[in-house]
């Protein structure tokens, strides 16, 4: 089954061709990061215009790199939410047009399911039950999967997403956009125990909170500046990163124990963070469990992960009507 998948929910215009879900024949990602950098974040209107310019060349490149033609395709998939409505409409409209012209099924895919399924590309048979930590620019969720389709949400962030916290603190520290990689780089030469930032404790729940941490970091910087002290950016970045990682991993490991999980799965852009991977990997090994995370290029937004979900939807004949609308606030 050959599926062309499109992703355009944020600031990456992406197209992939997947054979039977897991065989990625091409995975083209055109990032607009440079365009948004000078604004310190994604500007939705600029993003939609850029998606419009890029979607057709990106699709063409995905077909060429895969060595296939439109007429070879069995289905076309697109992210229809969550995300920025302008961007979603570009990818979804392109997919609808292709579906209509080629008379092939249209598959609407949830972007967050895509982030999770990025793990099933290299490892389709991860042992269940599994606990999945999804940490991206807009989401922070802890999920329990008894089977691939049967999951429940154990906890979510009550305020900022983990990636959002990285982006906001990076911007405040003048480290630039996107914040995750910038903070990770600055933290490499810093001491994670230099400043003892708070780790939110939301009691028995598996929920997360990062706004208190964000305020604590900002207050710390402001206080130091008022006292005329130079702020050590490396120490600050390392201490902030350590606080985020502690909050994420303590909830994750508590859930793993409570639900007797066999495997742990990380997904989303923040799962690209090496310190997060290391910290969780260490705790996982101690428990004798298996840890999975996608390769770096499948952590942040891409279309191969959308194609991976689409394949399973294809098998279940979970097709969309051409009237499918973009849903910016789509839930899992
Ligand atoms: P969502 O998937 O929730 O709709 P999104 O698509 O913007 O949001 P992703 O593309 O999955 O999010 O991930 C981008 C986020 O990941 C950004 O917030 C970015 O700062 C963060 N990120 C990327 N690399 C790293 C890293 N190495 N360490 C920490 N965070 C990172
Ligand atoms: Mg992005
Ligand atoms: Fe994403």
Automatic annotation (TrEMBL):
Cofactor: Fe(2+)
NCBIfam families membership: gcp_kae1, T6A_TsaD_YgjD
Protein purpose: Required for the formation of a threonylcarbamoyl group on adenosine at position 37 (t(6)A37) in tRNAs that read codons beginning with adenine. Is involved in the transfer of the threonylcarbamoyl moiety of threonylcarbamoyl-AMP (TC-AMP) to the N6 group of A37, together with TsaE and TsaB. TsaD likely plays a direct catalytic role in this reaction.
Protein name from the UniProt record: tRNA N6-adenosine threonylcarbamoyltransferase
Binding positions for Fe cation per the UniProt entry: 111, 115, 301
Keywords on record: Acyltransferase, Cytoplasm, Iron, Metal-binding, Transferase, tRNA processing
EC code: 2.3.1.234
Catalytic activities: L-threonylcarbamoyladenylate + adenosine(37) in tRNA = N(6)-L-threonylcarbamoyladenosine(37) in tRNA + AMP + H(+)
Recorded family membership: Belongs to the KAE1 / TsaD family.
Primary enzyme class: transferase
GO function term, MF aspect, one: tRNA N(6)-L-threonylcarbamoyladenine synthase activity
CDD domains attached to this UniProt entry: ASKHA_NBD_TsaD_bac (cd24133)
Record carries keyword Transferase: yes
Binding site for substrate: 134-138, 167, 180, 184, 273
Organism listed in the record: Halanaerobium salsuginis
Cofactor binding, note field: Binds 1 Fe(2+) ion per subunit.
